[in-house]
Amino acid sequence: MQAPRRTVLASGLAAAAALAAPAVLRAQPAKMRLSHQYPPAHHIARVLAAFAADVNAKQAGVEVEVFPAEQLARIAENFPGVARGAFEAAVATNFTWGNTIPEMSAPTIPFLFTELERIRKFPGSDAARFLDEATARRAVRSVGWLFTTRMSIFTSGRKPIITLADFQGLKIRGINPLIDTGLRAVGAAPAATPAPEVVGALQSGVLDAGLTDVSAAVSRRFYEVQRYGTVTPFFGVFTQVYVNPRFWDQLAPSARAALEASLRKAETEAIAATEATAAAAVGELRGKGMIIHEQTAEEQAAWKAAMQPPVIEAFRRAAPEGGPRILALLEALSA
Question: Which NCBIfam families did the record assign (predicted)?
Answer without folding.
Answer: TRAP_S1
